Give the backbone structure.
Amino acid sequence: MAYKSIVSILTDESLMAPALDCAMNAARAYDAHLDVLTLGVDRSSTGYYYAGASALVLEQSIAHADEEAHKIMAAARSRLTKSELRWSCDSDVAQLVELPRRVAQRARFADLAILPQPYGEGRGTELEPVTEACLFDAQVPVLIVPDDVKPAVKPQRIAIGWNESAEAMTAVRAALPFLQGAEKVHVVIVDPPAHGAGRSDPGGLLSQFLARHGVRVEIDVLSKTLPRVSDVLMRHAADMDADLMVLGAYGHSRFREAVFGGATRNLLEHATLPLFMAH
């Protein structure tokens, strides 16, 4: 397996650089085609305006979104034209309710989506549905790039957040090109279950699977010494100076994680290193 088609969805010029730079580097490293979609988002809710005003408000909002999309596209193309990559860059406009469909149409034929961090200060409400559309509707693995991080072109130290879930296994399979190129991969298990098939050898079958693919792997079994599993994973990733973390996304429902929190939501919000996720 190799990443031969990479997509990046950009909705905010101020957040464009880290994700686009990472996407360009990945396309260069894996000799892939890079497809960039710049989206202008119409955030108007026309049902709340007085009669007769909806059409005018909608027209103005769409015009503004189209202007934003072309502005982001111009900035992206100025970077892409200076590269030797195979690339395409288009713009589109969508209302918030239409975002999942538009994003999925473009992302579903990619091997990997590279996106900005969806949560944090100064981020629009559209970043969350863009990320979730890639994971759930397009069913493509996603590489999340935090603002202040310069991702390694080919990560050499990778942490896998392993909990034996189907989502985690999907992420590991999708991340094999990264894992095979790493110097060391750590399978990180927090408080493994005391009962179950793998209780005597937590992570053993996964490490065997990875070793057969030529991955140099170690197993780290940790206690939950912090309130959240995501905090333990992030601290361990920092201790091992990891370049990338691989994990399954949304083991619980998205609604439950949005209301009560969860490992995926916390990691997406507080990550200080790139996250590779799949569902």
Remarks:
- Residues 54-80 form the longest helix (27 residues).
- DSSP finds ten helices and ten strands in the chain.
